Predict the 3D structure of the following.
Amino acid sequence: MVSGTVTSGVAVVDPWSEKEQRGILAIQHLRFLAERGVLRARGGLEAGQFQPNSVDLRLGSVAYRVRCSFLPGALGVERCLHEIGCHMHALDLSVGAVIEPDVPYLIELEESLDLPADLSARANPKSSTGRLDMFARVVAEEGEAFDEVLPGYRGKLYLHVISRSFPIRLRQGDRLVQLRFSLGDTRLNDEETWELQQRTPILLGTDAPVIEDGLHFSAALRGAPGEVVGYRALAHTPLLDLRGVGCHEVDPFWQPLLSPPGGALVLEPDAFYVLASHERVAVPASVCAEMVPFDAKSAELRTHYAGFFDSGFGLGGGARVVVELRNRDTPFLLQDQQRVFRFQLHRNLAIPEVLYGQQGSHYQGQGLRLAKQFRLHKACAKQGDCKSLVPFRQHSWVPEGEDSS
């Protein structure tokens, strides 16, 4: 018997009362963590922070300009900042501040944790963060690994942020990353993944899915003449405001990439690309997913900054995965339907009370889609694939806590 309550019309369920003590906590469990002080925040948490399988973390009031990213280890964050000399100066995010491209910053988050001995957490960038080429990694007070919070941790959380392409205005309360909580071993092995794929197809549009340490999928580069198949970030762009949803033209920030001859695209060294997958994805309610780095032996690429796919992503026909990709040291030829992306499935502790998109999202049912801050590009708007896009709001200002993507 699962114990829980309903507060203001939403379920609050004790995760330790679930029969199977192995899985990713669902939204009803996350509310329980907040009620019991396992998950804390200055001024309390907002309802809009809770997602089907994760909770959004908010920026605090100060961004420290640092000389380099670091893992604090036993020294702790404060000693690394001030005794070792990583700290250079501070920005006041309570009134808004601009982070410059390729400059590292450390920001204390509004949320903190008091984890029991059997509960761990893992962070990843939100979709819009990845699509804006922002490298964002969470670190604990004495953390020895990025984005990992060990069982039993009690203390603050910090965010290392580097905007690789654009100058971006940030404010206190902005949400760049999200946090998942897990009990036990949550990952499905390849046999379990294959069985689920047969019962409830996750990768759509392929007759022979490749399952090797996760589900593999590919980029779509072949289209009609003149069709936009991706975008490449430009240098020396205007200022981008994170809260300006639908307020930015595409052209000053991105170079649209037309369908290349033969469906093969040469990726330039250290350039950032946004592409769409060839396959469509539908994540069942019983699991969630995480994008993971592809085998570096296959290509010198960093693929997909944003890692979490919530339960319900793409249900109702599937959605193409918009993928971020940065080439490394040498030009690389990427071919249509070449597999350079993969994600792993994780079992849920219970079916989330709310599935992805039911609270509103800019990215459910998507095709090729830039971050929500940009208007739909005129070339893409003429393409059939964009008919699957969720309508976007032009010139809308999103206050903290309104948008979930």
About this structure: Residues 384-404 have pLDDT under 50 and may be disordered. Residues 119 and 151 are 5 Å apart (CA to CA). The helical segments are 27-35, 77-82, 127-131, 190-199, 378-381. The chain has two domains: 4-183, 190-397.
